[in-house]
Specification:
4-stranded parallel beta sheet, 22% helix, 8 helices, alpha/beta
Length: 336
């Protein structure tokens, strides 16, 4: 920690204010520079506050973050306002889409300024998925885990062939909420899956959509871009940290491991799990509606083009949730 020059944090919009405060305190203490914000480390932060906010599930936690820091967003912590040199640089080039009309609509939704004409344009894409010529090409995005699970189960049941269930190897303390995929993973040949880890041989990355090609009791074969590969199980670790008095330092130990094939069924994904993905064909099923700031924008902006976008039902202004407090970063950080 004492040798750090820069600390780079990606997806900083998902970092809660209490975690950012803890980073500040840890760096001050461990670098022996308690009077300097973040112990004198220079920060480089990347993120989009117009996308999904930090996760806060308990009302008591939300109230604590509001009273202690002024909200859940990372920029609320006092340390980011101390000292000089903090500045904001906004990137303007869009890489995912090239259609200027779609980019304009997405930008207005992103800023919570959607107009009636924007919704009319998007709602022209409403269609039952069974009427789409190649409906299997579409990834269905939905707000809740329950909806995604229900859709995936229905598609899996409809596939012919024998289902194989692969049990994860779990050791030590690995909480259920931290499981990266199903502990009992049920697959069939033809199942659409998303890969959850980068391949060391660079044949796929975390987020690649693939198909199950063949299954055996202890073998999973996947098809990626027309080529078949054997998928190997991988391990995830859950770590625990404690202060070692003898060594006078924080020591990390492996509390538990989770070993499983790194895939999840992917006919449907939650919008939260789709953040960061780029998809050619997206079918948005909002069900009863969105429930988080930026959720509609993230769902709509996963798609490369308007032609690859379809909706289960018309969008309404109620679906475009936008938390104005997320714009506080503009007041906190002067533009370069």
């Amino acid at each position: 920690m004492r040798k750090l020059d820069f600390l780079v944090i990606d997806e900083v919009s998902m970092v809660r204010s209490d975690l950012m405060w803890a980073l500040d305190q840890s760096l001050r203490i461990n670098r022996g520079r308690p009077r300097e914000p973040f112990g004198g480390v220079r920060l480089v932060l990347f993120g989009d506050l117009h996308q999904l906010p930090p996760v806060v599930q308990e009302a008591e936690v939300a109230a604590h973050l509001e009273s202690e820091f002024g909200g859940p967003f990372f920029f609320s912590v006092p340390a980011l306002g101390e000292g000089a040199g903090t500045a904001r640089l906004e990137l303007t080039q869009v890489f995912r889409q090239s259609d200027e009309a779609l980019i304009s609509v997405l930008n207005r939704i992103r800023d919570g300024e959607v107009e009636e004409d924007d919704l009319i344009q998007l709602n022209e894409r409403v269609a039952p998925i069974r009427t789409l010529g190649e409906g299997e090409k579409f990834v269905i995005l939905t707000p809740t885990n329950a909806a995604a699970h229900r859709i995936n189960a229905a598609y899996l049941d409809a596939l012919p062939g024998h289902a194989h269930t692969y049990e994860a190897g779990i050791t030590g303390d690995f909480t259920n909420a931290s499981h990266p995929t199903d502990s009992a993973l049920t697959l069939k040949p033809g199942a659409k899956v998303i890969l959850l880890r980068n391949d060391p041989e660079r044949r796929w990355v975390n987020g690649t959509i693939a198909r199950i090609s063949r299954l055996e009791d202890k073998k999973v074969m996947i098809e990626v871009a027309g080529r078949e590969h054997e998928l190997e199980p991988v391990s995830w670790e859950q770590r625990r940290y404690a202060y070692d008095k003898e060594q006078e330092k924080i020591v990390g130990t492996v509390a538990g491991t989770f070993k499983q094939y790194p895939v999840r069924l992917a006919w449907a994904l939650t919008i939260h799990k789709a953040q960061g993905l780029t998809l050619d064909n997206v079918y948005i099923d909002l069900g009863r509606g969105t429930f988080a700031h930026g959720q509609a924008y993230v769902a709509l902006s996963r798609c490369r083009s308007l032609e690859g976008l379809a909706l289960a039902r018309p969008l309404t202004p109620r679906d475009i949730l936008f938390d104005r407090s997320a714009l506080g970063y503009r007041e906190r950080f002067p533009a370069l």
